[in-house]
UniProtKB/TrEMBL annotation:
This is SDR family oxidoreductase. PANTHER family: NMRA-LIKE DOMAIN-CONTAINING PROTEIN, QUINONE OXIDOREDUCTASE 2. Residues 13-192 form the NAD(P)-binding domain. SUPFAM superfamilies: NAD(P)-binding Rossmann-fold domains. InterPro entries: NAD(P)-bd_dom, NAD(P)-bd_dom_sf, NmrA-type_oxidoreductase. Gene3D superfamilies: NAD(P)-binding Rossmann-like Domain (3.40.50.720), UDP-galactose 4-epimerase, domain 1 (3.90.25.10). It holds the Pfam family NAD_binding_10.
Length: 308
């Protein structure tokens, strides 16, 4: 068994797209991990239904559940912390999770943040990440921050039922990244034989290129065989076109400002941290489309869709 140099690893959000990928990678390396999930039935398992080897599964109702989170972190030395669902209490939830980890004796936290995290970031959720990072920096633990760009999967979700991506992104560019690359970077950081070299380091985890949403639409068109286009909205149009969705004001502001941040260039930076840490180039959107057809099968013409 290959142990992390920092001992037992707690993986939060282990049933999600990123956490589950990380859990499988750590298991493949023989690392001892504790998977923190809301629903144990959704914890990642092997194809035959067996639990992942060297894994414990613990349940928590969320980061605000202080007693459960402290118990989940008890006995672990390293914690991988994914961000909570977008809400008005999001930063408070992150702070609570960090504090629970510190109280439980966790010595190192690897936190998943967002590119361009800053108090004045255009993308409102990137502001949340900045405030979380600030708390982490002063929490008295060793820390590493992975600042991800938008996920390739998120770009596919931008497409409306009519085949149009709408938003105030203008001609700005986004260096979207795959969940796999983020999981690979996290694995490299968590299992490094010399983990202290990542202490106090912020990594930008991006794809290998930055594309406009017009270019994204063209690549989706090529993959799906369906005409997909981008329509540049004004900010007021973006709010109006989403008003019927019933989302909270916080969610709406996050959705709209993500496009605005693309327009300002705050998501355009292409980092080579994936290649430096993993030893291969990051996967492009085109590669992701080839690798994960089920992730964008909803975009296919109805007659071309297949049951999974």
């Amino acid at each position: 068994m290959t142990w992390s140099a920092d001992g037992l690893i707690a993986v939060t959000g282990a049933s999600g797209r990123l956490g589950s990928r990380l859990a499988f990678r750590l298991a493949a390396e023989g690392a001892h991990q504790r998977l923190v999930v809301r629903d144990p039935e959704r914890a990642p398992r092997l194809d035959d239904g067996r639990p992942l080897p060297e894994c414990e599964v613990v349940q928590s109702a969320g980061y605000a559940d202080h007693a459960a989170m402290r118990a989940a972190f008890e006995g672990t030395r390293t914690a991988f912390l994914v961000s909570a669902r977008e809400s008005t209490d999001r930063v408070a939830e992150h702070v609570a999770a960090i504090d629970a980890a510190v109280e439980a004796g966790v010595e190192r936290i690897v936190y998943v943040s967002f590119v361009g995290a800053a108090p004045d970031a255009t993308f409102t959720f990137a502001r949340d990440h900045f405030h979380t990072e600030e708390h982490l920096r002063h929490a008295g633990v060793r820390w590493t921050v992975l600042r991800d760009n938008l996920y390739h999967q998120a770009l596919a979700s931008f497409v409306g039922p009519d085949g149009v991506i709408r938003g105030p992104a203008g001609d700005g560019r986004v260096a979207s990244v795959s969940h796999d690359d983020v999981a690979d970077v996290a694995t490299a950081v968590l299992l490094d034989e010399n983990p202290t070299r990542h202490d106090g380091v912020v990594y930008d985890v991006t794809g290998p290129e930055a594309a406009t949403l017009t270019e994204v639409a063209a690549r989706l068109t090529l993959a799906t065989g369906r005409q997909i286009t981008y329509h540049a909205e004004s900010v007021s149009e973006a709010y109006a076109s989403r008003a019927h969705l019933g989302a909270s004001a916080v969610e709406l502001a996050g959705w709209v400002s993500s496009y605005e941040a693309i327009a300002t260039g705050e998501m355009a930076h292409v980092s080579h941290d994936v290649e430096r840490l993993v030893g291969r180039p990051a996967r492009s959107l085109t590669q992701w489309l080839d690798d994960y057809p089920r992730e964008w099968a909803h975009l296919l013409p109805p007659e071309d869709r297949r049951e999974p």
